[in-house]
């Protein structure tokens, strides 16, 4: 919204024009110097939106008050990551933050900038660029108040609600009760049997199945560090054994559909074109690479590969005769996922594999995932962005990334040549802008996936989106789809753009005129348009076979990588235990001695 | 052994127990998988982010929480800083100090649990002593049976039933929260009314099962007291019923005082499940969230204070014993 437009004057520069009207809430204009300051300071601090960007962005410069330029790092030339860091940057007000930084130094990262709403380590007025300001917060709610003379009022209009309260719950049941009672107008949580809530005025995006829109891909990750699980035949048998439809019906209430083995988000037309249909038919017999459940075939695969029940316990052993067992880790309390894990375990037992679901608490789930201490787990790949399927492939397969940020299956190649090939496939596809060239790389990646089955996609997860029409009307929905094809928003939080189109019950409501693709007079830039711009700048013609659908102007690349944080070593833990033991014994002896002497 | 020796031994035990408990509280959260930085990083990956960005964040957070240091250094840092009044910074509510987090949650819990425990204790004990005194009467049988049943009801089940009946079906009371989410805490009549309306269900869900427990306990103790020679003697010389009842009540109170003391010590952790069911912003929710996110500083901070209060409460109970029960005082002297 702050940016008016952007262009690529040459193949290493992104030039962004800031709206002349854009002002901070204290009336100071929002300038290119704010953007420059934000980026440079963030980079210096290693915190904030530019942290870690030096690999992709080589510099930033305020050319004039309202024009700022970013330069790509030629060493990597990764346009996707370059745009991730630059196009979605939200600036901070330099005139406030500069003084704060001078006073606080590195501690500025602990500054909460809440104005007079909370006691803070540094006091400064709360200055924002958007239409809402922080009003109040405590442990169970965060409240915002609308700025009625917001600078964008004449361009975008004002959002409907004067106050916005984000409520924080510890149990889903309370949310559902409040949604029924009208205490909550919108919720982003799992709701079982959502059709029963229509009677209370609770609506979803679609009024009939699947009710919700897809969000991410639910994936059965298989721990690639475990040797016995590296056998593609075993993985293939597992993929064929899973009864996808049963899981979707029983665990997910029919809110979703089966996902493609290609990991392409085929449910949205702009992504579907990235499935190589020839390969899909060859490997899976379906054009969209969806696996058709076939337990007989799964058993045959295992029989032929030598997985037989040698010791007579009713379960198959490995070809070398060793017994094995597959556990499916899920965060406990995620009831739909727990049921899905139970069903998958049942499917595996059907084909003779000893399998159980393994619910662990949320903290332990991440701990075990990060340490690689699991057999299989139900997890997800992030929602697709304008770079999809590149983003998903990178997070699924890039051996340089480690959990929890990505590569949850600890995928790696043992052969170094193959590893290099995989890495170069991922890197090259981020630089290829002709559709054919990208498809060449994606096809190779799909072939690797089909051959090795690094992980098994189960179904799409759901964008939880339920609203109540008790007080507010105009919510985007199937019948009022003014806010739809935009790239998936951050889950579990209210789609903020939606607020511009809702009005109090009874008031007349029309969707905002700017929420349209750019060629229809709106501000949304379609995926195809962005890729086309990139193709022009890289000197290659981009022939788009992509149907014109819109995405937000913010490209978002949910890719993450971190080294597993490991606390102090085991030896140190032992040391502490020994110390406790010694202290306890000494204390007991000492007290007994004291008591005896006392007597 | 004199009273002083008695006290000295108790204090010695107190300090030793405290340090052993602190060590355990330090070790246990670290012994289970997961750490505060992981859950914090995961919350960042929900949106769009880059591997390099997370690398930077992770490096900084691991340093901020001392996780790169050996355990014994972390432990010593924690103990030394704590005794200077600095319990550290929460990981989940990053930037917020543990002391201020506790200060925010504690009042809500105290306001709920102290009155609830006191009311339950007073009613339960009085009724318990009374029905013991009225042995064999209908009121005794009725209250014993009722007490027995109520005290055995899981309190979370009772809480859910209360929500179902009063909030979902009858819709006369709100299902949760400490107050209407659209109000800001203040001393206006509007806020106080809202607070009290939200107070009823959680209060009842704690008081009811608790009363049952006290009735049963008190009745047993009081019955035994009634059989003691001094009561029989008082009875035979024609002391008034009301006075005998008072004797019984006072003399049966001792173990119940201990019980109350211990319960009040535990008030600090809140009622985790009750608070969760009612989305009530007390210590229980703070602790539950901190445990789930492996927020070491908060878990350690809460337990550091909790253990201190429980130990001190016990210590005070021991002291009160010496003061109010001549048998203990004299017993020590005679040894």
Short description:
Chain A has 599 residues and is α+β, with helices and mostly antiparallel strands. Chain A contains 17 helices and 19 strands.
Task: Considering the chains and any ligands shown, give keywords for the structure.
heterodimer; A: 599 residues; alpha+beta; Dipeptide-binding Protein, domain 1; D-Maltodextrin-Binding Protein, domain 2; Dipeptide-binding Protein, domain 3; 4 domains; 4-stranded antiparallel sheet; 17 helices; 32% helix; B: 335 residues; mainly alpha; 2 domains; 0% strand
Structure description:
The complex is a heterodimer of chains A (599) and B (335). Chain A has 599 residues and is α+β, with helices and mostly antiparallel strands. Chain A contains 17 helices and 19 strands. Chain A has helices at residues 32-45, 79-87, 94-104, 153-156, 172-181, 232-241, 244-250, 269-272, 277-284, 295-305, 335-350, 362-371, 390-397, 416-429, 435-452, 527-537, 570-598, and strands spanning 3-10, 13-18, 57-64, 67-72, 132-138, 141-146, 163-167, 186-187, 202-204, 213-222, 326-331, 355-360, 376-381, 455-463, 466-468, 472-473, 503-504, 525-526, 550-551. In chain A, the strands form six sheets. Chain A has a five-stranded mixed β-sheet with strand order 12-11-13-10-14. In chain A, helix 6 runs antiparallel to helix 10 (295-305). The longest helix of chain A is centred in the last third of the chain and has 29 residues, at 570-598. The radius of gyration of chain A is 27 Å and the shape is globular. With 335 residues, chain B is mainly alpha-helical. Chain B has helices at 3-31, 36-45, 51-64, 71-82, 98-133, 138-152, 155-169, 189-226, 229-236, 241-266, 272-278, 283-292, 296-324, 326-334. In chain B, helix 5 crosses helix 12, helix 8 packs across helix 10 and helix 10 (241-266) packs antiparallel against helix 13 (296-324). The longest helix of chain B is centred in the middle third of the chain and has 38 residues, at 189-226. The N and C termini of chain B lie close together (6 Å). The chains are: A alpha+beta (599), B mainly alpha (335). Chains A and B meet through helix 2, strand 7, helix 5, helix 12 and helix 17 of A and helix 1, helix 2, helix 3, helix 4 and helix 5 of B.
């Amino acid at each position: 919204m702050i940016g008016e437009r952007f262009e690529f004057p040459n193949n290493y520069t992104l030039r962004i024009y800031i709206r002349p009207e854009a002002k901070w809430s204290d009336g100071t204009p929002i300038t290119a110097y704010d953007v420059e300051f934000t980026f440079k300071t963030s980079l210096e601090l290693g915190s904030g939106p530019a942290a870690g960007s030096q690999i992709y962005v080589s510099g930033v410069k305020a050319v004039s008050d309202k024009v700022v330029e970013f330069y790509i790092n030629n060493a990597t030339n990764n346009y996707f990551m370059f745009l991730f860091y630059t196009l979605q940057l939200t600036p901070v007000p330099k005139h406030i933050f500069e003084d704060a930084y001078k006073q606080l130094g590195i501690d500025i990262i602990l500054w909460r900038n809440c104005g007079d709403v909370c006691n803070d380590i540094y006091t400064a007025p709360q200055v924002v660029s958007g239409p809402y300001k922080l009003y109040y917060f405590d442990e169970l709610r965060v409240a915002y108040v609308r700025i009625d003379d917001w600078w964008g009022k004449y361009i975008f209009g004002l959002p409907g609600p004067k106050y916005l309260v984000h409520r924080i719950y510890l149990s889903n049941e309370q949310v559902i009760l409040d949604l029924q009672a009208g205490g909550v107008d919108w919720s982003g949580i799992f709701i079982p049997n959502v059709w029963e809530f229509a009677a209370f005025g609770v609506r979803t995006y679609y009024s009939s199945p699947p009710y919700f829109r897809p969000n991410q891909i639910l994936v059965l990750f298989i721990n690639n560090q475990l040797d016995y699980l590296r056998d593609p035949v075993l993985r293939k048998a597992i993929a064929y054994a899973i009864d996808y439809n049963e899981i979707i019906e029983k665990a997910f209430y029919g809110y979703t559909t089966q996902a493609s083995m290609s990991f392409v988000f085929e449910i949205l037309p702009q992504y579907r074109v990235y499935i190589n249909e020839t390969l899909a038919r060859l490997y899976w017999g379906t054009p969209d690479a969806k696996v058709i459940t076939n337990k007989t075939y799964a058993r045959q695969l295992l029989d032929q590969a030598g997985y037989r029940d040698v010791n007579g316990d009713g379960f198959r052993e490995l070809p070398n005769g060793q017994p094995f067992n597959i556990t499916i880790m899920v965060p406990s309390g995620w009831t739909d996922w727990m049921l899905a894990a139970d069903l998958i375990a049942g499917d595996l037992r059907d084909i003779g594999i000893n399998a159980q679901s393994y619910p662990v608490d949320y903290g332990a789930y991440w701990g075990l995932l990060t340490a690689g201490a699991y057999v299989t787990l139900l997890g997800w790949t992030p929602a697709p962005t304008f770079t999809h399927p590149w983003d998903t492939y990178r997070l699924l397969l890039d051996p340089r990334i480690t959990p929890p940020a990505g590569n949850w299956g600890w995928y790696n190649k043992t052969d170094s040549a193959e590893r290099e090939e995989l890495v170069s496939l991922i890197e090259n596809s981020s630089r290829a802008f002709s559709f054919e060239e990208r498809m060449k790389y994606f096809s190779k990646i799909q072939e690797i996936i089909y051959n090795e089955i690094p992980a098994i996609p189960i179904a799409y997860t759901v964008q939880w989106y339920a609203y109540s029409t008790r007080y507010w009307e105009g919510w985007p929905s199937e019948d009022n789809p003014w806010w739809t094809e935009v790239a998936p928003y951050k889950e579990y939080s209210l789609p903020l753009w939606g607020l511009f189109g809702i009005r109090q019950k009874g008031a007349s409501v029309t969707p905002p005129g700017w929420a349209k693709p750019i060629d229809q007079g709106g501000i949304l830039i379609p995926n195809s348009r962005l890729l086309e711009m990139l193709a022009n700048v890289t000197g290659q013609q981009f022939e788009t076979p992509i149907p014109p659908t819109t995405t937000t102007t913010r490209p978002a690349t949910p890719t993450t990588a971190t080294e597993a944080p490991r606390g102090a070593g085991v030896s140190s833990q032992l040391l502490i235990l020994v110390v406790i033991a010694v202290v306890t014994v000494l204390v007991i002896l000492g007290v007994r001695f004291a008591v005896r002497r006392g007597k | 052994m004199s009273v002083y020796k008695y006290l000295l031994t108790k204090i010695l035990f107190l300090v030793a127990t405290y340090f052993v408990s602190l060590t355990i509280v330090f070790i246990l959260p670290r012994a289970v998988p997961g750490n505060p930085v992981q859950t914090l990083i995961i919350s960042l990956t929900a949106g769009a982010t880059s591997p390099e960005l997370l690398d930077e964040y992770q490096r900084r957070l691991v340093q901020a929480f001392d996780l790169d240091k050996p355990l014994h250094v972390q432990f010593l840092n924690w103990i030394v800083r704590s005794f200077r009044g600095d319990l550290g910074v929460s990981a989940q509510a990053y930037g917020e100090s543990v002391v201020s987090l506790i200060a925010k949650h504690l009042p809500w819990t105290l306001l709920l649990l102290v009155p609830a425990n006191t009311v339950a204790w007073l009613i339960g004990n009085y009724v318990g002593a009374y029905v013991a005194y009225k042995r064999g009467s209908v009121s005794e049988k009725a209250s014993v049976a009722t007490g027995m049943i109520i005290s055995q009801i899981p309190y979370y089940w009772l809480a859910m039933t209360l929500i179902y009946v009063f909030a979902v079906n009858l819709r006369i009371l709100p299902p949760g929260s400490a107050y209407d989410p659209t109000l800001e805490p203040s001393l206006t009549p509007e806020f106080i009314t809202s607070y009290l309306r939200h107070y009823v269900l959680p209060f009842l869900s704690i008081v009811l099962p608790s009363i049952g427990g006290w009735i049963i306990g008190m009745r047993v103790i009081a019955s035994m007291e009634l059989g003691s020679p001094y009561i029989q003697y008082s009875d035979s010389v024609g002391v008034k019923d009301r006075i005998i009842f008072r004797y019984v009540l006072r003399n049966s109170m001792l173990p119940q005082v201990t019980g109350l003391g211990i319960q009040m010590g535990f008030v600090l952790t809140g009622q985790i499940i009750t608070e969760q069911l009612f989305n009530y912003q007390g210590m229980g929710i703070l602790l539950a969230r901190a445990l789930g996110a492996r927020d070491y500083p908060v878990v350690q901070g809460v337990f550091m204070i909790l253990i201190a209060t429980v130990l001190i409460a016990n210590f005070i109970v021991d002291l009160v014993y010496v003061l109010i029960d001549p048998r203990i005082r004299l017993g020590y002297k005679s040894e």
